[in-house]
Amino acid sequence: MEIQKFNYDNAIVRNFIWATVIWGAVAIVVGLLAALQLAFPVFNLGIEFTAFGRVRPVHTNAVIFAFIGNAMFAGVYYSLQRVLKARMFNDILSKINFWGWQLIIVLAAVSLLGGITTGKEYAELEWPIDILIAIIWVTFGWNMIGTIIKRRVKHIYVAVWWYLATFIGVAVLHIVNSIEIPVSLLKSYPIYAGAQDAVVQWWYGHNAVAFFLTTPWLGIMYYFLPKASDRPIYSYQLSIIHFWALIFIYMWSGPHHLLYQALPDWVQALGVTFSIMLIAPSWGGMINGFLTLRGAWDKVRDSAALKFMVVAITAYGMATFEGPMMSLKSVNAISHFTDWTIAHTHIAGMGWNGGLIFGMLYWLVPKLFRTKLYSEKLANTHFWIATLGILMFAIPLYWAGITQWLMLREYNVNGLLAYSNFIETSSRLHPMYVLRIVGGVLFLVGFLMFLFNIIKTIKIGALENNEASEAFALVNTDKRNTASETMHRWMERKAVRFAIFVFIALVIGGIVEIIPMMKVDSNIPKISSVKPYTPLELAGRDIYISNGCYNCHSQQVRPLRYETDRYGEYSKIGEFVYDHPFQWGSRRTGPDLARAGYIGSSTYKTAIWHYNHFNKPLEMIPQSIMPAYPWLTNKEVDLSMLAIKIRTMQMLGIPYPKDFDKIATEEYLKQAQLIVADLKASGVQVKPTSEIVAMIAYLHKLGKDISHAANKPIK
Amino acid sequence: MNILYLLIGVSLFAAIIFLWLFIWSVKSGQYDDNYTPSIRILFDDDEVKEKEITKK
Questions:
Q1: Burial of A2 (0-12, 13-18, 19+ CB in 10 A)
Q2: Which of A519, A538, A624, B13 could bond to A533 as cystine, CB 3.0-4.6 Å?
Q3: Can you tell me the ipTM of this complex?
C-alpha cells in the first residue's frame, strides 16, 4: 500500500476564525443596542438607520450568518480535512467561499440598515444578495463534496454526514424561499402570497434552525467534543441513527410557527406532530454528547473548552425539549407573539451555538497555532460570566412572556378585558427588559475576554499554513483518482449515478417553471370584499416593510377570545391573498395591526392621530417604546416606480384592471389628496407624495375590507 | 394552499436525496464497522510531526 504525503490547508481555517471573532463582537454589540432600545427608546438615536425595525434584522442576520456562519465554516474546514485525510478539494474554491461570505455579510449589514429588505424574517436580504448566497453556498458544497471524493479514508466519519446534510438542506430551503420577482435592483416581491408565503417562509425559517444552527453544529460536536476530551463518542451507532432520523423529521415541522393562524388546521396538526417527534433525535444528540464525557468529568473541571461544550449540550437539550412543547397549541398560545420565544432562541443561540463556538475555539486556536491558550484562567472567567449572562438574559424574558400573556388574557368582573390598553401590558415589562440588558452586557464582557484571549494566543503561537500529513491511499476502483481522472469521467462510469445527477439538474429547472403556474390558480377561499392594494396603499406597504414594522407589530388575530375581544374579528386565509410578502410578524412588542383600518376596532386611529404618533409617539402614549419616525413626513415616495410595481403585481396574479399601471400615479395622487385634506382639516400640512400619507393609507387598509355582511367565502 | 404540494414535493425531493445517500452509504460499507471510526479520529493527526520528532 502506498503512503501518500499531503498538506492540510490551515490558512483558510485561520481566516474563518478571525471572521468569527470580529463579526461575533459586531453581532453582540448590535444585539445590545436592540435590547437598550426596547428598554429606553432614546437609543433609537432619532435616525432612520438605527431605529429598532432596522437594527433587529441586522442583529439576527449578524448572529446567524456572520458569527455562527463563519464559525461553522472554520469548524467544517478544519475537521473535514482531518477526518477525510485530504486537503480541501480546491484552494480557490475555499478562498471564494471565504471572501464571498464576507462580502455577503457586508452587503447584508448595509442594505438592511438602509431599509432594503424583503420583509421575510431571517430571509430579509434582497434578490441580488440571495443569488450571491446561492453561488457561494454551492461553491462550499462543491468544495466539500470534492474533498469527500478524494478522501483517503473509506469510512466517512459521522461529522461529515452532518455537514453534507447542512449543504443539501440549506441549498434547497434558500432557493425555494427566495423565489421572487425583481421590481428594481433593490426591490422584489416574492411569488407567494399571504398564507402560502407564510407557510413557505416558516418551512424555511424553521429549517434554517435545523440545517444552519443544528446539523453543522452536531457535526462539530461529534468531532471537537471527542477531540477536546480525548474520549470516543459514547455510541457511534446512536450518532448515525439520530442523524438519519433528525434530518428526515425536521423538514416537516415548520407550520408550528403558524399555530392558530390563517392556515388550514391539518397543516398545523402535521407540523405539531413532527415537532413532537423531534424530541427523540434531538435528545439522541444530547445524550450522546453527555455520555461521551463519562469518566472524563475531571477534565471538564480543568478545561474551559469542555465547560463551554457541556453548557452547549445542556442548552441544546433544554431548547429541543422546549421547542416541541412550544409547538403544542395551548403552550403556543402563550409563547407565540411574546418574549418567551425570544428567551427560547437565545438559550439556543447563546447557549448551544455560542457554547460550541467558544468551546471549539478555545481548543482549536491553541492547536492550530501550536501553542497553549494564553490564559486558561481568563477563559474560565469568561465561562462563568457568559453562563450567568445567558441566565440573566433568558429568565427575565420567560418572566416577561408569561407576565404579558397573563395580562393580555385577564378579564375583570364585568367580563371585559382587564388591561384593554396594550401599553399597560408592555410597560409592565420594563424591569425585565433592563435585566435583559444586564445579561447582554455580561455576555459581551465575556466575549471581549474571549477576543483578547484568542488574539493573545494567536500572537504567541505560529501557524503552519500548510500542515504536512500522510495517509495510505484509498484503494477503491469506484472512487475517482484525482490525478488521472476528471470529475465527469467518474460520473459517467456508473450510468445510474449519472442519471441521478441529471435528474437533480432537471428537477431544479422544472420546479422553477412549475411554481408560477401553480401560484396563479390558487384554491384559497377568497373573500369577495377583499380588494387589492391601491397604488398608494402598496407604496405605504413597501414603506412599512422597509422600516421593519413587522419586527414589532403582527397582522394576525388568532381565534382566541382575548384576542378577538381586543382586536376584532380573527384573521382568515382569504384576507391575505394579495399580500406579497405576508406580514403576519412573530412578536407583538406593540399591538397587532390586522384591524388597524377597521373602523370601530380598538386599533383604528384617525389620520391625524397617526401623524402625531409617528412624529412624537411619547406625546400620544407616554410609556410607549416605539421610536419616532419624523422622517416619514419629509421623505417622498418615488412615483416613477409605481407603474413597474403594478405590472409586477399583475404578473403575480393580482387582478388589477388592464393598463392600470398607466393610471397608477393619477390614482395615487387622487387617494393621497383625501388624506392630505383630512390632515389639513386638523391643521397639518403635508405633501401628497410624503411617505407618511402612504403609510396612513396602508394602515387604514388593514382589515378595512372585512365587514360582517361581506364576510362570506365566494368559492 | 396549492403551495403545500410544492413544499411536500421539495421536502420529499430532499428526503429522496437523503434516502439515496443512506442506501449508498449502507451498500458501500459505511456502516460495516461502527466502532473504530470513533476511536480513529482521536489519534490519527500529528503522526508526521511525532515521527519527525522521534527521528531527531
A1: exposed
A2: A538
A3: 0.81
